[in-house]
Amino acid sequence: MYDVSIIGAGVVGSAIARELSKYNLDIALIEKESDVSTGASKANTGIVHGGYVGKAGTLKGELCIKGNELYQDLNDKLHFGYKKTGGVVLAFDDEDEKTLEKLYENALKVGQSEDDIEIIYGDQIKEIEPHVSDEAQAAFYCKSIGVTSPFEFTIALAENAVDNGVDLKLESEVINIEKYSDYFEIETVKEKVKSRYVVNAAGIYADKIASMLDADDFEIYPMRGEYVVFSKSQGHLVNTVIFQAPNPKTKGVVTTTTTHGNFMIGPNAEEIDKKNDVSTTFKEIKYIIDQSRKSIPDFDTNRMLRTFAGLRPKSTRGDFIIEESSVKGFIQAAGIDSPGITSSPAVAKKVVNILNESGLELNQNKDFNPYRLGITVKKDENFAGEIDHQDPEKNIICRCETVTEAEILDALSRSIPIKTTDAVKRRTRAKTGECQANFCGSRIKNLLSRELDIPVEQIKDRDEDYVPERLDVFELKKKLNS
């Protein structure tokens, strides 16, 4: 019998699992895929938003600023990759400037310091962002904005939770839940799990999970956001995170760099029907490129590496849903769309408080270890690695990102099992470089085959069965240049 079972090992579920592992509890983290962070948590902008993003008086307003404040300490302990870059919201006309004033007012209402925010103009903008468009006449500048690696963050949370005693149950899709007098019975495709409390952190499928207990007083609908990732050669174009002032027609798109230095643009916002449709389309990618040029006019589309899409779990309530449901002991952590990555550490603390108020006894786990070592190893020009070197620490598997055999072996040795090349990619950055796995893809499969002792043809690339239709970047470049 578990004290708490969490359904969904995205960033929210993993953050809750780690927070609960600070106490003497038996905890299960249940995930339908073969790895953590395979849904919205791996496919988003990776922005640690300023508190102003959440409207005052909402859960988003309460938790975004609290989550932002927790990031530096978490990164110091878990080493997932986080940079406090600051960010600007650009205004291109007088109406946009009025929007900036509203953002400033909301920032103060949610508790952001006046020292953290200001409205700047002309040369002040150029001092921060030299490559920004000359059409930008003002900007809301927020110093506490940052960027993170969302999938590395989720993996770090889950890994640390498992290291502190959480049972991670992968490939365990939940198909039914029954409520008994003082416990729940969760039926997965593998087993039946008994638990005193259940937390629904199932992301895009949270309404489906809630319906199993007739607690679905909301619906989740997928909002698709498409992105373009460029090579690091374009990374110099952006110093902070650049937003555009939202208006009734568009929320604008973001231009940013990843924690590893790649230039990235997106997303758009498309309400779609299918909860697994992460395809990319020429029409929407073209829109994102055109909109991004309003902010940074001179990026080179010939340096595009790939497109991708993620699904945000929008709820019919229009805000985060974090509460004990009508079913005693069944806690909702649903509808966590943007700024969900930012808010997730604070969401976890709120869920733990709700569980405590519902009767869960919290006694400190004196053996809790908050630390986790990173996997990627930074190399400088003196790194003496070679392809096919006998020493794993010098044997380069991915030459674009200089990922070694030792780093991949480290990832494989951790407490979360790895079965796919994408799982390796999320932990080491192999496959993410200029050649997009044309060189290292087969080498990773051979390494996994050797270490897992299974035939190489059984090694899959994706953890999910669904394979999206993504734009071929070479064809995309041809169309854009024609």
From TrEMBL:
Gene3D superfamilies: BFD-like [2Fe-2S]-binding domain, D-Amino Acid Oxidase, subunit A, domain 2, FAD/NAD(P)-binding domain. It comes from the Bacteria. Transmembrane segments: none annotated. Residues 396-449 form the BFD-like [2Fe-2S]-binding domain. Residues 3-352 form the FAD dependent oxidoreductase domain. InterPro entries: BFD-like_2Fe2S-bd_dom (IPR007419), BFD-like_2Fe2S-bd_dom_sf (IPR041854), FAD-dep_OxRdtase (IPR006076), FAD/NAD-bd_sf (IPR036188), G3P_Oxidase/Oxidoreductase (IPR052745). This is Glycerol-3-phosphate dehydrogenase. It comes from Halanaerobium congolense. The lineage of its organism: Bacteria, Bacillati, Bacillota, Clostridia, Halanaerobiales.
